[in-house]
């Protein structure tokens, strides 16, 4: 089936879920404060279908996923695209801005991009990288990849054609991985906020050590991780707070020497401060983590917990691109 026919085919189970749940919501069900969820019997039905907000089907139910058959690893193996364009402050782990085009030269300063390329080489999937928005401006380009990774992108990093292409890619069953300052991107695009789990960056405290708590070891991205592990990061505070997602890891705020208070005075999230989570979103898969600030997390320089962090990211990538079970 051609891509055009796939995108205009009859309703998939996931899209049908959106329609059905929207009818439930429109049928006069009482809403809880803030309009978050329908009450009564419709509440259970809507939860089972996946939450309907941001205009899409989203949540942990696989019924929100659209499998159009766009991705065939047998045709050329698994492949991901790393996108690290910045239109504002640039993290040190990205190194200098990259030249235009696909796969421009990397140096030792490009720590995060190089680490992701090495993960692919070591684990049997191909990695392309770019900071050229033209490489994302059509769904045809993006459908070559089993996942697109936003690596510490900053602010308005996509133009209109790239935004449209990303939406069409997700709706065609694509995968999105957002790492660290992917949360500082496209602030004024509501659909992208939903892609991040209905969450957004607010502020953070200083880069400081803390203890990460693994929420569950059932997921591909947490399998093999210890129940608690040391790591150093900026520990993002989030407004809005993620919703309708499966939390995979949290930071124990009690272990932060300076506490979670950020530059603007956000008090933190107490005992429930997630740092990684997953969801199905608008037909595709989304796995995100706020972790990954320190350059040392991406290099061979010694840093507590960096091996757990990279294993976590690897599992997130492999599950998002469909190589392993997703969001378990």
UniProtKB/TrEMBL annotation:
Descriptive protein name: Glycosyl hydrolase
Pfam name, any one: ThuA
What molecular functions are annotated in GO for this chain?
A: hydrolase activity
Q: Can you give the residue ranges of the ThuA-like domain?
A: 80-318
Keyword Lipid biosynthesis part of the UniProt annotation = no
Q: Does this UniProt record's set of keywords contain Hydrolase?
A: yes
Specify the domain of life of the species encoding this protein.
Bacteria
Protein keywords: Hydrolase
